[in-house]
Amino acid sequence: MKLSNIPKIKHTDGNNFFLLAGPCAIEGEEMALRIAEEIVSITDKLKIPYVFKGSFKKANRSRIDSFTGIGDEKALKILRKVSETFDVPTVTDIHVNEDAAMAAEYVDVLQIPAFLVRQTDLVVAAAETGKVVNLKKGQFMSPEAMKHAVTKVTDTGNENVWITDRGTMFGYQDLIVDFRGIPTMKSYAPTVLDVTHSLQQPNQSNGVTGGRPELIGTMAKAGIAAGVDGLFIETHFDPKNAKSDGANMLDLSLLEGLLTKLVAIRKVVIE
């Protein structure tokens, strides 16, 4: 799998998994830089190819009073500053066709949310920017169905596409990762496991999504053992007070310990 087409990506010659990590949403410049600085230090130490993740806006909220962002351009400029400050690539999710060209001016990877991955115009708009397109597998889709989403990207002439599994709905308020789907999706495109969103508990009666962060280590280890190419982990130095998805984020203080274990497992898997 080639990562060299992503600007500023490092540590690509070590046959390690790559990492998309950062806060759920950009809440401000100081928090984004603080989180990025810590993750860059850890991934440089462990030789993990790293892409900083942060949503410039959140369109898929349960309640109308939920936090959606600090302003599109303001958040995108912060993502650019993270990239310039720490010399790392960045990824953000888009929700409408017009977001694609706008976000592509600031970030290196455009992510299609799981609940929008069948929206052909949105996927094509992202692909036509020439950026890497990260397709979140719909919670309602089989692994085999992701072949068609990948084809929508490659049919534009853009071969830079990933798939990210974030679980499949199991009843109304839980998600299950079927690891049998990993090799299937890897046959279509490099495949990432979204560890933290796979542990969400959506559709709670209070309108605030729950989660099982105590299982992040278990899920991540299973993903590496199953052969995923990359991991997606949302992390924050104060998850309880994060403005979005705090219930399923990893405390930043736990990230280095987890990644150290995962690098060791990866070495065993690829030998």
UniProtKB/TrEMBL annotation:
GO cellular component, one term: cytoplasm
Pathway: Bacterial outer membrane biogenesis; lipopolysaccharide biosynthesis; Carbohydrate biosynthesis; 3-deoxy-D-manno-octulosonate biosynthesis; 3-deoxy-D-manno-octulosonate from D-ribulose 5-phosphate: step 2/3
Enzyme Commission number, as recorded: 2.5.1.55
Record-linked Gene3D superfamilies: Aldolase class I
Molecular functions (GO terms): 3-deoxy-8-phosphooctulonate synthase activity
Catalytic activity entry: D-arabinose 5-phosphate + phosphoenolpyruvate + H2O = 3-deoxy-alpha-D-manno-2-octulosonate-8-phosphate + phosphate
Protein's cellular compartments: Cytoplasm
Keywords, sorted A to Z: Cytoplasm, Transferase
DAHP synthetase I/KDSA domain location: 8-261
Top enzyme class: transferase
Family matches, as InterPro entries: Aldolase_TIM, DAHP1/KDSA, KDO8P_synthase
Primary localisation category: cytoplasm
Pfam families assigned: DAHP_synth_1
Family, as annotated: Belongs to the KdsA family.
NCBIfam families in the cross-refs: KDO8P_synth, PRK05198.1
Name this polypeptide is given: 3-deoxy-8-phosphooctulonate synthase
The organism of origin for this protein: Leeuwenhoekiella blandensis (strain CECT 7118 / CCUG 51940 / KCTC 22103 / MED217) (Flavobacterium sp. (strain MED217))
Phylogenetic lineage: Bacteria, Pseudomonadati, Bacteroidota, Flavobacteriia, Flavobacteriales
